[in-house]
Amino acid sequence: MLRRQIVALVVPVVCVAGAGCGGSAAVPTTPSSAAGLSVSASRPAERCANVALEGVAPLGIFNGALGAAPMPMTIAGVSGSLGSVVTSLTTSGQSNQGAQHITLRHDFVSAAGSFSTEDKAVCAPAGSDPNVCRVNDVMQIVSGTGVFANATGQLVNNGVIDLNAFTLSYSTRGRVCGDGL
After folding, report:
1. pTM for this model (two decimals)
2. Greater pLDDT, 135 or 43
């Protein structure tokens, strides 16, 4: 049942995002790097910050796409808001009964600068409630502005999507780097 509900919410997202409405969902290519830096390039420690975030975010439909509502966050000492939007979804299993494979984008926005991620997540059934799944998300930082100019890094999220409460519980860890940090 969770699969059907997520698919019902995401199909318009895939169409809006241009990934196609009748075929398989597009998978993003490896992002190009900013200013010639590779995504995995090492950075001086003083221009990077470890990130640890935990909480619960409301889910919703934003501009026709399922996502987490922008929530107030402080990342690398910068106060702003972080939200997400699903860009594509496919279901594993011969009869589409398996885990959801989701691509999405997170945007952190602040007065000092912003950064964006391109993500790959898996949401697998959790227990007997078909409206609840465990999500594991790898968020690759692909762009930034202001203090996050030439942003790089990666965040990893483990959480629970609960469509009964329409919430995402998250525990996110990782590292973000930028020229102004």
Report:
1. 0.75
2. 135
